[in-house]
Amino acid sequence: MLNLPNEFKTKYQNLLGIEKANALFSAMNEASKKAFRVNTLKDSNEKVSYKLNNPVPEIDHAYYGEINGEDPEWVSGIVYSQDPAAMFPAAISKVKPGAKVLDLCAAPGGKTTALAEKLQNEGVLVANEISNVRAKALRENLERWGVTNALITNESPEKLSPVFPAFFDVILVDAPCSGEGMFRKNPEAIDYWSQDYVLTCQTRQKDILNEAIKMLKPGGSLIYSTCTFSPEEDEEIVSWLVNDHDFSILDPHINDPRISLGHPEWADGNADLTKPLRFWPQDGIGEGQYAAILQKSGDIKQEIDKKRKNKRIKRNPLRLTKNDQELVAKVIEQFNLPVGLEDWHEKALVRQDHVFVPAIVLPENIRLRIVNNGVELGILKKNRFEPGHQLAEVLGQVKQSRVIELATLKDYQDYLHGETLKVQSDLRGFVLVSYRNMIFSFGKIAGNQVLKNFYPKGLRK
């Protein structure tokens, strides 16, 4: 039984009425909902061993059920575990292939991977996370998903906004919040809750959004979401965006009767505040969530420093030498490359021996903490090239012939632990490694038919 603060219970009894509030409190003591999404960037559905007979409403390729982090579906980026209600902010976004998209508070990456699917690896996806530790997890999840067009940054919104003035077509702000909607999933969040903390979160959300607004094109769309029930962090924030920043609230066109609407009476009475979506645990979709989609006025004049704008020209980063390009080609051109990497030799750059195809080339005067930019092809070593793990996950998007299929669960588990394996194959050199036809790593076969392990040490189980 959750020990909910009396102040919290009184607040929602006043907002919802005694009967509805008690239904909320009761639901918060039930088991949380588990669900997962199937990756549409990879040829996935036929490979999934989980049951796909209980779909999450209104979300394509999403199903109720629990997955295991050691299963090949997870390791190879075929599935992603996510709270079903948390799937909706990305689902209602108006993202099209080729767009410029920012996920400003991106970790651990559930919403980011969904945005990447909408982009179909076209355009640019900037995924930002202010926490160093969480930015690392974000990178791992995007790599596993096979995303090729993402710039992952580890910055504050204040540092990011001068770099991208009026740049993005779509921005998602899944704002840090008081976490009321996650109490049954993360009961420790209750210890931090107070009405003062709610108001502190509201101030922080406005600070983040003030920077996000600077980066959104006139006419662009902003998706604002939280995992809290708090009107101060939901309706009041959206009302502030409308009244102070000339946004309009759009209809997300989600009509499932189990999904509630916003409450105008909890803010300034604007009738459009019914358009955002509210998820309550007693309604049976998932955990608590709020999701709104807004459009920035098309005639807002964005103040852009003309001097900075004139400097936004591509610098000439270090290109591969002819010899280095030959070393890279000798390895990666043995594999079928997905769209976007076929012309790698025209795009590839090298920094500190790491070879990558960037999602975006930033101006020379820009200094950002970049976690990853595009696809890391691998690393140059003395007179040789070693392909990187991200490339293996990306190559899993298309059919391959240089693949070693592990025959048993024990072989698969041993490989995840970092062990070498004896294999029967005529292949030599670098190969892709798969289990149950799901590619998850590189390996290298020597003349003695030993498969050398290239699964990253930081991921070994």
TrEMBL record:
Domain SAM-dependent MTase RsmB/NOP-type per the UniProt entry, residue ranges: 1-297
Keyword Membrane applies: no
Highest rank taxon of the organism: Bacteria
Pfam family membership, one: Methyltranf_PUA
Biological process terms in GO annotation: RNA methylation
Active site as annotated: 227
Binding site for S-adenosyl-L-methionine: 105-111, 129, 174
Transmembrane segments: none
Keywords per UniProt: Cytoplasm, Methyltransferase, RNA-binding, S-adenosyl-L-methionine, Transferase
Molecular function GO terms recorded: RNA binding; RNA methyltransferase activity
Family: Belongs to the class I-like SAM-binding methyltransferase superfamily. RsmB/NOP family.
Protein name: Putative nucleolar protein
Taxonomic source organism: Lactobacillus acidophilus (strain ATCC 700396 / NCK56 / N2 / NCFM)
Upper classification of the organism: Bacteria, Bacillati, Bacillota, Bacilli, Lactobacillales
